[in-house]
Write a structure and sequence with these properties.
- This protein is an alpha/beta fold.
- The chain folds into 2 domains: about 220 residues, Spore Coat Polysaccharide Biosynthesis Protein SpsA, Chain A; about 55 residues, no CATH class.
- The chain is about 25% helix and about 30% strand.
- The chain is built from 9 helices and 23 strands.
- The strands form 7 sheets. A 7-stranded mixed sheet has the order 5-4-1-6-11-8-12. The protein has a 4-stranded parallel sheet with strand order 14-17-20-23.
- α7 packs across α8.
- The N and C termini lie far apart (about 45 Å).
- The mean pLDDT is about 95.
Length: about 300
């Protein structure tokens, strides 16, 4: 197991502009996946890694995140919630925590849903091989998801030599997945990182490349089974379907629901306190908590949410 000196960081400040009306009700980190807020899943990951102190950087609807995580006692850790303030990119958000980070730390992007296997192997690279950074990576069969994220050029030993944010023509199908272990050496690299031409922000991938160019040892670790970046409502549906599949379930219905007789579900998650007035068929849907539905379906590939 990793030493108890690891700290955790979850970045949960995103506004979710491409989530449509969902963004008015939920910060992305609180979107439910199989009726569990996404950030709770991240905190369970950190708990399983032995992390006892976690910083959560919030922005849009940050007070909701604060209420959802509390003081961290549920996960056996202390949670400190920090307002991002000016939003100048992921590396900028991480840099704001420098005075609070005293050890190697696990960084999770709060808008990515994933399934990991043996993530503690990432720590082993820091403890046994003095890696300055470890990137969770996955080989894709198609370049499209690499173009949407960042590519990772590695040699046969797993050492990373180049990372490229949203490459237009990826030269590898190895993709970074939004889970990292860093040592405090990252902060020096961020100081040497210019704003990107892509978004005029301080990109984390650019900071990682600065770390590599300084001669630091950076490693990729294949610990990701699947990952979905929650950018649009379709991504929320996909995340819920993947978790249902992993649980060998066709559907999941939350507590306190009133469901009209004759209603059927397929690859669908129904949140707590939902009222379905008329019988219908829901396929590949996510019904958020408290929703009242009075539409005689069928409904396909929909995210349903309370009005108002």
């Amino acid at each position: 197991m990793p030493t108890p000196t690891y700290q955790g960081v979850i970045l949960a400040a995103g506004g979710g502009t491409r989530m449509g009306p969902l963004a008015d009700h939920y910060p992305k980190a609180l979107l439910p996946v199989a009726n569990v807020p996404l950030i709770h899943r991240h905190l369970e990951t950190l708990q399983n890694l032995g992390v006892t102190e976690t910083f959560i950087v919030v922005g849009h609807l940050g007070e909701q995140v604060r209420e959802a995580v509390g003081d961290g006692a549920r996960w056996g850790m202390a949670i400190r919630v920090v307002e991002q303030g000016e939003r100048l990119g992921i590396a900028h958000a991480v840099a704001a925590l420098e005075s609070r980070i005293h050890h190697a730390f696990v960084l999770l992007l709060g808008d990515i849903c994933y399934s990991l296997h043996e993530p503690a192997r990432m720590m082993e690279h820091v403890e046994s091989h003095q890696a300055a950074a470890v990137l969770a990576v996955k080989m894709e069969s198609d370049p499209a998801p690499v173009r949407r994220n960042f590519s990772v050029e590695m040699d046969e030993r797993g050492q990373v030599h180049q990372v490229v944010e949203k490459p237009s023509a990826p030269t590898t199908l190895c993709k970074g997945c939004g889970v990292y272990v860093f040592t405090p050496a990252l902060f020096d690299a961020i100081r040497n990182t210019p704003r990107s031409a892509l978004r005029n922000e301080y990109e984390l991938t650019d900071a990682i490349q600065c770390l590599i160019d300084s001669g630091a040892y950076v490693v990729g670790s294949f610990v990701v089974d699947w990952d979905v970046n929650l950018t649009t409502p379709t991504d929320l549906i996909e995340s819920n379907r993947r978790v249902l599949s992993a649980q060998s379930k066709s559907a999941l219905v939350g507590e306190g629901c009133q469901i009209a007789s004759g209603t059927t579900f397929h690859e669908t998650v129904v949140g707590h306190g939902v009222h379905i007035v008329q019988p219908c068929r829901l396929e590949r849907c996510v019904v958020l908590p408290g929703t009242v539905m009075d539409t005689p379906g069928p409904l396909l590939d929909q995210v349903c949410y309370p009005e108002g």
